[in-house]
């Protein structure tokens, strides 16, 4: 049986808490709200919605099994980078390595603290999880770096994936792209 890889795997730092007001999950929840709002032109096949939820009390093995199932169904990873991304140890490094080395997913890196044209994403290298630094340094991943805005996100996830990765380890949209969009 051939599995369809159409999903978008969203990764973020849980910040060591289950409180959504203190966690970067709020950005994932915003993506889901955009997806559900019929007045907004935004839709994505959420890989997390395709499997059973994992309880906070689940073992790490159960968590990893569920995340692997989601990664198997995904065509791309959307990695949300915030001011909190590298502040606490998390499952995030494991997710990035699995996505790249096992499932060969390209990564959309979306920065919540940057707006508009992003000419040099390496300036934010100090915000990258260790695993992202590793996969970029070893040229193991193709990625695009964008602001956390609806239009660039939907463009990146709808046009790219395992069968149509980005051109470089670090790709950006040209300045003209941002001049011509409205978020």
Notes on the structure:
The protein is an alpha/beta fold and 183 residues long. It contains six helices and four strands. The protein has helices at 25-36, 60-72, 92-102, 130-137, 150-159, 175-179; strands spanning 7-11, 74-81, 107-111, 143-147. The longest helix is centred in the middle third of the chain and has 13 residues, at 60-72.
Supply database-style keywords.
single chain; 183 residues; alpha/beta; Rossmann fold; 4-stranded parallel sheet; 6 helices; 4 strands; 13% strand; globular
Architecture blueprint of SSEs:
Layout (H helix, E strand, L loop, with lengths): L6 E5 L13 H12 L23 H13 L1 E8 L10 H11 L4 E5 L18 H8 L5 E5 L2 H10 L15 H5 L4
Parallel strand pairs: 1-2, 2-3, 3-4
Helix pairs in contact: 3-4
Number of strands: 4
Total helices: the number is 6
> What is the overall silhouette?
globular
At the fold tier of CATH, the topology name is Rossmann fold
Based on CA atoms alone, the radius of gyration comes out at 15 Å
Low-confidence stretches: none
- Which structural category fits the helices and strands? alpha/beta
CATH architecture: 3-Layer(aba) Sandwich
Elements, N to C (H/E): EHHEHEHEHH
The rounded distance between the terminal residues' Cα atoms is 40 Å
Domains (count): 1
Q: Overall pLDDT, averaged?
A: 87
Quick rundown:
This protein is of the alpha/beta class and 183 residues long. Helices cover 32% and strands 13% of the residues.
């Amino acid at each position: 049986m051939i599995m369809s890889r159409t999903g978008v795997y969203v990764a973020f730092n849980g910040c060591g808490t289950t409180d959504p007001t203190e966690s970067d999950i709020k950005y994932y929840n915003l993506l889901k709200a955009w997806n559900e709002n019929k007045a907004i032109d935004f839709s994505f096949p959420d890989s997390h919605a395709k499997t059973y939820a994992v309880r906070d009390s689940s073992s790490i093995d159960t968590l990893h099994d569920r995340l692997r199932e989601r990664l198997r169904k995904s065509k791309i990873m959307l990695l949300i980078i915030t001011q909190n991304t590298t502040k606490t140890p998390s499952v995030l490094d494991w997710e990035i390595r699995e996505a790249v080395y096992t499932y060969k997913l390209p990564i959309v890196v979306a920065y919540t603290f940057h707006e508009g044209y992003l000419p040099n994403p390496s300036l934010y290298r100090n915000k990258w999880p260790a695993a992202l630094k590793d996969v970029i340094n070893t040229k193991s991943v193709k990625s695009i770096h964008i602001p956390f805005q609806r239009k660039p996100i939907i463009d990146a996830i709808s046009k790219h994936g395992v069968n149509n990765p980005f051109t470089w380890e670090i790709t950006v949209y040209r300045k003209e792209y941002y001049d011509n969009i409205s978020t």
